[in-house]
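#lab-general

N.A. 3:47 PM
ok so I finally got the sequence cleaned up, no stray characters, all 77 residues accounted for. can someone with queue access submit it? mine expired

B.Y. 3:52 PM
send it over

N.A. 3:53 PM
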Amino acid sequence: MKIRQALLALTVIAAASTAQGADLLTVYQQAQQNDATYLAAEQAYKAAEQNSPIARSALLPQVNLSASTTNDHTELK
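B.Y. 4:20 PM
back already:
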């Protein structure tokens, strides 16, 4: 019976050593890419970052440009 347990333990250890597990960084990156709550919070942060430049734009000078052309053709007889 001890030989059978030792063989089973050896098989489990061999299988565990060849199994490829994901490291913590990979799992974290996949969670970032697939977590809807995280992605929504990230987009809300990016939108909030734009509030400062938008508010400052009202204080900056504004330039307007317009142009027009006319063409008059008079025929004298």
